[in-house]
Amino acid sequence: MTTAVTTAPAPARASRSRRRGPLVPFGLRTRLVLAFLLVAVVSAGTTSALTYREARNAVLASAQDTAVVSFREQVESLGTGLPVDPPTLREMLFVIASKAKPHPWVVFAEYGSVRVSSGENPTSTVITPELRRTALTASHGSFERVVHDGVPYLTIAMPVAVRTGNTSSLPSGLVLFAVMRMTDEQADVDALLTAARDGALPGLAIALIPALLAARSVLRPVRELRGAARSMGSGRLDTRIEVRGRDELADLARTFNESAGELERSVDELQQAEARARRFAADVSHELRTPLAGMLAVTEVLDEDAGTLDPDTARAVRLVSAETGKLAVLVEDLMEISRFDARAAELNTDEVDAAETVRKTLAHRHWDGRVRTELPEGVRARLDPRRFDIVVANLVGNALRHGAEPVTVRMSVRERTLVTEVMDSGAGIRPEVLPHIFDRFYKADAARTRSTGSGLGLAITQENVRLHGGTVRAANQPGGGAVFTVEIPLTGIRDTEETRA
To answer: Which residue range or ranges hold the HAMP domain (predicted)?
Structure first.
């Protein structure tokens, strides 16, 4: 036998659950109350659901079993002969319908193309195709519960067999169907659902009282903790919470106070250490600057006279001159980065020709013959010429040292943003190096202890770009080689067409 049960209350409960869902992100009071109510709902709902299910099944099964057994007995007691005469068959259907239990039936018969019923219509719209197919294969019949136009029905199908002996029979092809309304049973089921729902409401009301009391006792220290956390977040690291009681919330307050004290001490130590480090780097750089200037002047004279010295002395002179130059670059870079750390760096902007600024940078360092340029004419922008010169020089110098020629500098204006790209033709930047490319003193090759640069060039470049309110990023080109892209938003950009207008 096959059964299909369709009821409406369950989706309604699911809909109510979905409406309760958005309440969860509310405050702690709401969550505590909801937690207590959830426990009450689960307990009451589980009990009510189990009770409702058992009672419902008992109500439906009682009516269903009575109807199925009674209909089977009536069909098996028929003395039907073949072929079937429709008038005679209709009389038999009236007899079967008169003995319906527990509620009145409407009996339908189907035999080939013959359709007869004990009601006004020869066929029923309640009987499903699935039940008809099942009736042909189930010798003892089958039944199905369906809801049609909002009315619940029990439909029963019984095939009629023709006896060929004392113990044997053959299917006659005649199938009888009984259609019985189950409105009384549905009313009983609805009453059970209402009783279960009404019984759960007092439990929810009772659970609300301890929920409110618990929320009240928990919220006060939580509010204090929230206020203290906000106070610490705003920089007041001496914030503390008053400890009350000996429960878990008191332990939390004590832990917060201990953590705040440790944090305050750690931050003070870090700030002092950072201030000492910045002051040391600035002082050392400043003190080295004067003697380095003298050393550079001497090494320049020695370089000029190196050709008149013996080879060993000339190599030593050139080595001292090169190392002194590197030391001078390192000192200048340290002083520059210390100004950024101390937030003493200033932006002195002027309206300049962006392309001409790049050309001057390349010409000043004698790179104009080694670097290709794609620079639009007539683009004027407000930049700090000295800092933008450092940006371009560091990126081009990095491409010439660590990439491969040809190196290209491309400039364009996109959506009121000055975009400068520096591309080389080398092997590119390894993926594991890219996230650290702008870190101070970062070395892509751990075995490389010396380099021609200070290790601060890209870090200084990033700081200068940020000072302009822009960004700089590194990537690899699809065809090979690295590309550094500088984007500086320039609200004051003017091109030649805007100038003419």
So the answer is: 216-268
- 264 within a domain of the structure (yes/no): no
Confidence category of residue 357, pLDDT binned at 50, 70, 90: very high
The arithmetic mean of pLDDT across residues 201-226, rounded, is: 72
Torsion of CA 365, 368, 370, 372, to 10 degrees: 130
| Helix intervals (H) in 234-310 | 248-305
Domain CATH number, residue 298 = 1.10.287.130
- Find out whether 180 and 104 touch, Cβ atoms under 8 Å: yes
Residues 304 and 390 reside in one and the same domain: no
Same domain, 44 and 144: yes
* Alpha carbon distance 477, 69 (integer Å): 82
Nearest to 70 by CA among 41, 90, 39, 95: 95
Domain range for residue 335?
A: 269-341
Q: Looking at the structure, do residues 66 and 183 belong to the same domain, yes or no? A: yes
Helix (H) or strand (E) holding 61: helix 28-76
Q: Which residues of 39-55 are buried (b: 16+ CB within 10 A; e: fewer)?
A: ebbeebbeebeeebeeb
Model-level pTM greater than 0.70? no
Which of these three, 341, 367, 382, is where a domain ends?
Answer: 341
Whole-number Å distance between alpha carbons of 460 and 332: 11
Do the beta carbons of residue 200 and residue 172 sit within 8 Å? no
Q: Write the CB contacts of 374 (distance below 8 Å, at least 6 apart in sequence).
A: 408, 409, 410, 411
Residue written as tokens 């057994």? 69
| C-alpha of 450 from chain center | 45
- What's the total number of domains in the chain? 3
Burial class (CB in 10 A: 0-12, 13-18, 19+), 257: middle
